[in-house]
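hiii so my PI (J.) wants the whole complex modelled not just the main chain, which honestly fair. so below is everything: two entries, each one labled with what it is. i double checked the lines twice but i was tired so who knows lol
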Amino acid sequence: MSFELSSLLLGLFGFGLCFVTISIIRSKSLFTSIILLSASSLMIMLCYLLMDAPDVAMTEAAIGVCLSTSVLLKFAKGYRHAEEAEQNSKLHLIPYFILGSIMIYAGFDLALYGEGAGSYISDYFLRHTGNEIGVPSFVAAILASYRGYDTLGETTVIFTAAMALSILLRGFSSKLSSQTSESISSNADLGSISAFRPEGVIINKDALASALSNSGSQISVREAHRSGMTPKGNIVAEVMVKFIAPFILFLAVYIQICGEISPGGGFQAGAIFASIAIGFYLAFPHKVLVNPVRVLTIATSVGLLIYASTGLLTVFLGSWYLDYYALAPDPHFAQKIGIFAIELGVGITVAAGMMLIYFLFDREAKGLQ
Amino acid sequence: MIFRMTRYLKIRMLVLISIIAYGLIVIGIFFITSSIIGLFRFPDFYTKMHAAGVADSFGIQLCLLGFALMQTSVMAAVKIIIIMILFFLLSPTANHLLIAAAHKSGLKPYKKKNK
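here's the output for the full assembly
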């Protein structure tokens, strides 16, 4: 048994992952579990790095550690003080024990780290990627070319999640705003305020517009919204976000384009792009910014459309679905074009999907249409 | 200029750079350790954020500077310096935003109880 620093650190972070997961289960408040979820994503990301999987580590860092935590933190405010009820009987734990033992038993069947189960397949990939595809990154070649159809399924999963959330939250938001406007419309003094919530005061734009026109003032709704009815922003956040935004956008485009050469690709680039776009909306809460849910819905679909259309294009050019060799006469150039096209589709879908999830919750929290 | 140096001077310079790099890493580890101790010993959220900020904003910079000096290729050192600049800009920002958010939520600072 040789001593390697990476296996020692792997054991350390694996233990840290177990520790954090048990802390999540035992935590009493929602806030604590959100922060601990971010910590568990950090632990598993370090494990991915130590196991020589930088693509997965980058995706986990961008989505698990940063994006999901910030979205959850922003919109879990109303439930901050909710606590679990004490359970007296432990009968509800029995299915968890059964499921856990089944998973542990199945875990014994997994191959050891380093001796893959399908090692003849990885042998084939290692030997023939240079000849057949000509792309330096094996991960991109397998993800986008050898197993391109599975990646289409992954992109559809992200698309479906965003669309399901869009359907769920749209119905709730319209019902809520109509209820509150009915209940408070009779009050002449508070005519423009829809509801009092823990986040702040929610403004019914139609009532505000009518109140302004009745009083005869020339201010538009947008100026009234800005003048003092929303919380002010933080100067440090504004300056830093404005400074660092071009670099992060550049990084997202770089990771998108160089996904074939270095670790990267569409998923990571989409997550980084979404994080800086959401960062803008988090850093400037006092400015009236358009809620771009409609554009993002279209963009999510366009990304998936680009991916699927590449496959259809190859069918029209005479070969089977997602066979990139039909796209150009030179085989390596054809593969590069195909991989670039589908990574573009993946990047657009992931970026728009992540932003859509944030803005749907944002629209529902503010009660506006 | 390096090609004209004698071998004796080159080795002396490499040893000096290595000593400086190790010294920087040791000082950085000292700051990180003191920050961890402070995280456990300080009584209040604001003081704990100060302790955490020491490691994030200063201890890591020194360690990264030491690593950059230890690199063999210039490009790797430049990449580490860029990461150091990014850390230097962004982690005090995160620290400040956390403290501002706590202050806005109405968290009161720690007051020593008079006996």
